[in-house]
Amino acid sequence: MKLGQQALEALQAEITGKIYPGDDLVVAGETGISGTLELVCREWDKLRTYFSESFLRMGVETLKNCMISEEDVFWKEAGFSALYFTENGGILSGLWKMAEASGVGMDVDLRRIPIRQETIEVCERLDVDPYKLEAKGSVLIGTAQGDALVRELEAHGIHAAVIGYADSGNDRLLHSGEITRYLERPRLHLTEIIPGKDRKDGKA
After folding, report:
1. 3-state secondary structure of 176
2. What is the mean pLDDT of residues 85-96?
3. CA 164 to chain centre
């Protein structure tokens, strides 16, 4: 179901610029950092049954140091078609928002999305999808020169990767090895996907 005009305009206001068919999709920074930090905080006792306290504390500090600042002058100088700081919702939510706001299709390889091992391990123990975690600290970018932008980001000490591309079709595809599925409209917030916690209605 398509968004109404008012909802679409509100969504477009969240995105800086617009992506175009043929643009590369780049993720700068590690996805799911803020969500991982929240999970560790909320589920500390449960995680302590799997990991040592020193591992968890070091993981928290490492993740904090990986977070990208929106205030960095780089974002004002970099060349891109579209920019979205993935604070509200996870990386999948950000991809859907950017595609919907620009009216394009997408083809994305989930295995290319930068993600810390700490996030993977925490999510595995708590049975949480890391790509739906709150993702403050990373940036989703649409650009005609993905590889060049990645090199520039890496030169600034920011881990980045081209994860796919936009096209003129209607399909928004997610690949993970031999498995392909459609990108769905986001519905879940972090508080809804932490097992055993109070749930709140709402959409990303």
Report:
1. strand
2. 88
3. 13
